[in-house]
Amino acid sequence: MHLEPHPFALMLQATEASAGGTYLVLVLAISILSLLVAVLFSRYVITQDSGTSEMQRISNAIKEGAEAFLRRQNRTIVSLAIVLALVIYAGYLLAKNDTTLAVRMTISFVLGSLCSLLAGFCGMWVSIRTNIRVASAARSSLNRALQIALRGGAVTGLSVVALSLLGVGVLFWFFGGLEDPRGVPSQIVAFGFGASFVALFAQLGGGIYTKAADVGADLVGKVEAGIPEDDPRNPAVIADLVGDNVGDCAGRGADLFESTAAENIGAMILGVSLYPVFGMLGVIFPLVARAFGLIASIAGVMVVKAREDEDPMHALNRGYYVTTVLALAGFYAAVHLLLDGNLMLFAAGVIGIVTSFLFVYITQYYTEYRYRPVKVIAESCKTGPATTIITGLSVGMECTALPVFVITAAILGSYYLGQAAGLPGVPPESAGLYGTAIATMGMLSTAAYILAMDTFGPITDNAGGIIEMSRQPDEIRERTDRLDAVGNTTKALTKGYAVGSAALAAFLLFSAYIDEVKIALGHQRGILPEEALASIPFTVDIGYVPVFTGALLGAMLVFLFSALAIRAVGKAAQTVIEEVRRQFRENKGIMAGTSDPDYGKCVDIVTKGALKAMVLPGILPVLGPVAVGVLYRNFTAANGAAAEAVSPEFVSTPVGAAAVAAFLMVATIGGILMALMMNNGGGAWDNAKKYIEAGAYGGKGSEAHKASVVGDTVGDPFKDTAGPSLHVLIKLLSTITLVAAPLFI
């Protein structure tokens, strides 16, 4: 007998939809406002003085090279994305026989890809126009140069986070999230996958480009020819400056875009399990919390100001502290409004914010030359390149310990705070996992400001190069050197922040994957999502052979991916080195300063090498987990009795889904450790070289300096290609498994 819903129940549902709609409108409004602020910042930058004609000539060469590379890279990415969109549509249509779901997944993927491309383009478009204006401002004022550089970087930070929020919020609304808040989050997971897919190729392509050019310029220019960095006589110098933009601006922008997008969607999926307590508000809480973080970041950027004799890092830190305090207040307001003011859940968010601080300071300890690790590497340079590399590798391996302790404490603390939150009718495990999701939100609440500081780095690096190549007076170069030194620090700190947020987000997405499998199993059995989450067990038994081998394949993928990325840098760098040597050999006027090098030839070589080399390592993490899940799901039918003998839970846990969970779990752990080693080890080598260039152990031109340059070039593909790409790999694996989860059952 069919029973009509009770009028009171319908009224409650309507009230909940109205409240959820109000907060969703607030999120979209703040996102649009942030994009408008980004436009105002870009207009502020563009109206500044653009320097002398010689400075403009150099800046235009950088701009043309960066735009040409991005156009060619985006064409490649779009071609691959179109193929993948068709595969997603066909896969869902054939596997689920659900046209609506197939269309929504495909739309989500396409929109995520387009938003990620747009975020990277916006950031780089402004950065390659900000560099010359920072260089020009540095001729008269360090403070004005600092403010222009940070506001140029803020265009990237605000665009990335706002577009991420806007994309997820619009999809949630148009897919009927206000009417079906429990089902729609699972239908927009492909948005995160699209963002991750683009981010991986953007980071890989940009990273290969920037480090191939950097290694080629350094080894021939500094070591063989004995000319300083950014010397206009170096044929690879323009390619090196272009690389700063395509790697550190476009690449990192896409990286943090997919971090925020994937984390938002993962937290919304986990919020479904809290539906009995908070209703729709628990599902859209991540969007509201992130929106308040945007407001905090705008305020943080606006307050940055430095005295002419002050360390610019102090001014940036003040902005970060203001952003953090305001983000904390916004987080509390979001918890109060949407989560009934639950202080335990707020405390979980505080853990995330504290974790971001700790990661920043740990990274600082291992990569700044004021501290032991970098000084130890610098001392080892006295005895040659071999000991430099040995010591650098040991520092890189050592630096994994403290971050892992911090991640462990953050996950455990937030998990148990979630369980202690007193959520009636919610299984303790689901409550604990939501606590870890809130910690991840806390860590990413300052993402827009952090990304502004990151983009500040390549902008000031380019500004210094423009000043050097246009042969400006030494006092101006001294100002840009101070900004550049701060920029190197902010880039290193951002990598530490990115890997920390990747670790927390990956655990969150792993939990969301398990929930997605449970919901899919419940759908097969006609069970509502919240009932499926509470009643269907999911066991990853590492002692079962197919599951163990899935985990082994996940560990292998991290090493194979890293090898391909590093090899690509080495191969492209060899071509650049040969070209620079050829130009020096055939055109003696270059070193004499009577003729200009052919900068365009090196730019073209690196562009072609990077685009060709990024495809294979980019495709591997997409195919790997899908292949494991699709192939291993056959073990459920073939070895059902054996599975039940090993673990009775396997009757309800498909082996394909469990094998992919093991693959994802071990790849995440291995990827985090490898990324930490490469990021911090490479950064330590880089700053050991800078420590020696500042006058230690004989200074520039000494044997110790030459050894440090070799160490720095070994660390270059670690810290700027493979390491940052592993952040994206970790989250791409999580989002592809979320999208493909129904195929593993």
Topology:
Blueprint: H1 7-46, H2 53-96, H3 99-137, H4 142-174, H5 189-224, H6 237-271, H7 275-278, H8 280-302, H9 312-338, H10 343-367, H11 372-380, H12 385-398, H13 401-419, H14 428-443, H15 447-469, H16 474-524, H17 529-535, H18 545-586, H19 589-592, H20 599-613, H21 615-632, H22 634-638, H23 640-646, H24 655-693, H25 703-740
Helix pairs in contact: 1-4, 1-8, 2-3, 2-5, 2-6, 2-20, 3-4, 3-5, 3-6, 3-15, 4-6, 4-8, 4-15, 5-6, 5-18, 5-20, 5-21, 5-25, 6-8, 6-14, 6-15, 6-16, 6-20, 6-25, 8-9, 8-15, 9-10, 10-13, 10-14, 10-16, 11-12, 11-24, 12-24, 12-25, 13-14, 13-16, 14-16, 15-16, 16-17, 16-24, ...
Describe the structure.
- The chain has 745 residues and is mainly alpha-helical.
- The chain has helices spanning 7-46, 53-96, 99-137, 142-174, 189-224, 237-271, 275-278, 280-302, 312-338, 343-367, 372-380, 385-398, 401-419, 428-443, 447-469, 474-524, 529-535, 545-586, 589-592, 599-613, 615-632, 634-638, 640-646, 655-693, 703-740.
- Helix 3 (99-137) packs across helix 15 (447-469), helix 6 (237-271) packs parallel to helix 16 (474-524) and helix 16 crosses helix 17.
- The model is unreliable at 1-14 and 637-651 (pLDDT under 50).
Strand content: under 5%
Main beta sheet strand tally, sense and closure:
none
Shape: globular
How many H/I helices? 25
